[in-house]
Amino acid sequence: MDPDFPTFAASRPYTAFKQEITRIGLFLPKETVNHFSALSRYFNNLLNHLKSDFGRRFWKTLAVKNDGIRAFKSKRINFKFKQMMKLFGEIKKKVKVHKVPMWRSYSICQNCGKRYQTDFNLWFFDDQYNRYCNCEFVNGESRIEIIKRDIETNKQGIIDKKRVLVLQMRKLDERLEDLFEKEKNVNSIRHLEKMKPAFQNMKQNGHYKATRKQAASALKELEKYDSWTSRVRRNVNYKPPIGAALVGGR
């Protein structure tokens, strides 16, 4: 039964909300929908009462459209409970998504200040040298805190590796830039060939003897660099076969 309102205008917000509550629920997070803590007692009873047809339709629409749950026709199906069980299963999978290695799943007991291990039965924690915690009830990090600590440790390790790689990349970029500059400088050898006619002219027609001498020296040096661009050149380590000179002399 709907509540009574003094005027029609006062009932309009209630009527509009009641008509659109299913659409509103489709856009809310699952945790919010399962509780609806902001609603009045009347709407909570309307949605959660076992014999409420409106509530059944609401939860059925929400479960089928948001969670892909099969649209059973029976009125005995509790779609809210099915949605809650599906959410419960998803959260369990998320919580177990990170596995902490056995050797990193220890913590320090606040009672005795020694290492303890409550999730695995390890023989070396049952030693006789009083090195590990032997309290009946330990006081330390929870299992979730240990998992979060291990995730944070892995994150920090990856961040450190990334920082090292970034520094290496910067150094490689500097070396690559240096090689590009060297390549550009080496390619300037093609300009030497264009300078040869000018030096020849200066060697023959230079006004001063010293200029002509320097031009001749430069031309001689240019001939050496000519061999740098030639694919066919003399092998300075060549040794003629033994007896080749005698055979050639006959």
Explain what this protein looks like in three dimensions.
- A hairpin with a 6-residue loop joins β1 and β2 (115-116).
- The longest helix is centred in the middle third of the chain and has 44 residues, at 143-186.
- The chain has helices spanning 8-26, 30-35, 41-48, 53-67, 79-95, 143-186, 190-205, 209-229, 244-249, and strands at residues 107-108, 115-116.
- Strands 1-2 form a two-stranded antiparallel sheet.
- Helix content is 61%, strand content 2%.
- It is mainly alpha-helical.
- Among the domains are: 8-95, no CATH class; 98-141, no CATH class; 190-229, no CATH class.
- α1 packs parallel to α4 and α4 runs parallel beside α5 (79-95).
- The model has no long low-confidence stretch (mean pLDDT 79).
- It has nine helices and two strands, in the order αααααββαααα.
- The N and C termini lie far apart (131 Å).
Task: Fill in the keyword field for this structure.
two-stranded antiparallel ribbon; 250 residues; single chain
Topology:
Blueprint: H1 8-26, H2 30-35, H3 41-48, H4 53-67, H5 79-95, E1 107-108, E2 115-116, H6 143-186, H7 190-205, H8 209-229, H9 244-249
Antiparallel strand pairs: 1-2
